[in-house]
Amino acid sequence: MGKENLDTLKDQVYDALFSDIINGVYPADTILTEKFLMEKYGVSRAPIREALTQLTGTHILSSIPRQGYKIFQPSEQQLLEVIKFRSALECSFLESYCTYIDESRIKELRNTCVDYINCPTNDFMSHWHYNCQFHLKLFSIYGNHYAYKLLEDALNIQTIFFVQKKHSATMDLHLALVDYLEKGEITTAVTILKADIENLLLLGTAPTPVDPIRK
Asked: I need a labelling partner for 178 at 20 to 30 A (CA). Which of 42, 85, 139, 193 fits?
């Protein structure tokens, strides 16, 4: 099999397995083996192994020697570190590259907020999906592919947390953020972005309400 075909199969397996993980198909304590995954997704060992390596590298799965792979379960400290990392990364880039955000980008961001509002209130995965989509769409404006991948990996870790805890993410601050970006009030927009990121749920505890303007 050529490398191009192997890469295509690996990507297909990765997408299918990651989708199953974030949609709760596998309980948190499930041990995934190469043999089981080969049978489930109907492919050979090579693309399965490549996909597992990629998922392990981005902290979606943890490798258990001589057993298989288990869905990564971030500790409270690890999750806190991810949130602090995201806050520093996203806020610094918004401050540095705010001039890249034009009217068409504002419209795209606002449409993402509308999609969130229109999804069922009990569909927590859709809520979190639109939350991730909003942050990635905003960050993609800056054109830094390396930093974008770091943010994507951080959001993947948080996705696993939200799947396990069945929590949703509010986007009330996203609409306010877009409003201030549209007005060109970047300092306030950065403050709101920081509050939005740091107001996420931690290990089953309720978020502390934040007034982003007074903070």
From this structure: 85
- Structure-token pair, residue 115: 């999609």
Question: Rounded to an integer, what distance in angstroms lies between the CA atom of residue 144 and that of residue 113?
Answer: 23
Residues facing residue 62 across a β-bridge: 70
pTM above 0.90, yes or no: no
Type of residue at 151? L
Domain boundary among 71, 91, 116: 71
Q: Nearest Cα to 83, choosing from 194, 192, 214, 6?
A: 194
Domain range for residue 40? 3-71
pLDDT band at 29 (very low <50, low <70, confident <90, very high): confident
Residues 189 and 85 both lie in one domain: yes
Residue 59 burial class via C-beta count within 10 angstroms: exposed 0-12, middle 13-18, buried 19 and up: middle
Rounded-to-integer distance, Cα 56 and Cα 107, Å: 36
Q: Which residue has the higher pLDDT, 60 or 104?
A: 104
